[in-house]
Amino acid sequence: MTEYIKTAKNFLKSCNAKMSITFKRYGKHFEDDKDYRNIYTVRIDRNGKSFSFQFGDSVMNTQNGNRPTCYDVLACLQKYDVGNFEDFCDEYGYTIDCYEDKKRITKIYRAVAKEFDKVTRIFGDVMDELQEIY
C-alpha cells in the first residue's frame, strides 16, 4: 500500500467517513472521451449525510485491471471553490470562441460547482485536511 493510499484511508477514518466503490459499466465517461474506461458508482457517507456520483477511472487502471482506490477518488474531488463563471474560465484556461463553446463550458462549470457544493456539505469542517490529498 502506498503512502498516498494510507493518507486517504487515514483521512476517511479520522473523520468517520465511509466510501464504497462499485463497478457500474465499461464505456465512455466524459463527453469527449476517446477511450473506454471502467466507470464506478462511488458513495461517501459521513455524519448522516451522503454523496453519490459516477467515477470514470483512469484508462491506465482500466487497461491494467486495477480498481480505483479511495486515494484515486479523493484526489479527484473538487476541493476548491471555483468562483463565478469568469473566474472558472480564467483558472482552468477556457476561452469562449462561439456559442457552442459557451454552452459546453457552462455545462462543465455547473457540474464542477455542484460537485464542490456536495463535497463541502460532507467535508466542510475538514476541508483543509481533504485538500492535502492531491
Structure in words:
This protein has 134 residues and is α+β, with helices and mostly antiparallel strands. It is 47% helix and 22% strand. The protein contains six helices and three strands; from the N terminus they run H-E-E-E-H-H-H-H-H. The chain has helices spanning 3-14, 59-64, 70-76, 85-92, 99-123, 127-131; strands at 17-27, 37-46, 49-56. A three-stranded antiparallel β-sheet has the order 1-2-3. A hairpin with a 2-residue loop joins strand 2 (37-46) and strand 3. Helix 1 packs across helix 3. The relative contact order is 0.17. The model has no long low-confidence stretch (mean pLDDT 95).
Topology at a glance:
Elements lengths: L2 H12 L2 E11 L9 E10 L2 E8 L2 H6 L5 H7 L8 H8 L6 H25 L3 H5 L3
Helix pairs in contact: 1-3
Shape: globular
**Strand percent estimate:** 15-25%
What value does the Rg take, in angstroms? 16 Å
Low-confidence stretches: none
Strand order of the largest sheet: 1-2-3
Cα(first) to Cα(last) distance is 17 Å
**Integer average pLDDT:** 95
- Topology as a string of helices (H) and strands (E): HEEEHHHHH
Overall helicity: 40-55%
Structural class determined from secondary elements = alpha+beta
Tally of helical runs? 6
Largest sheet: 3 strands, antiparallel
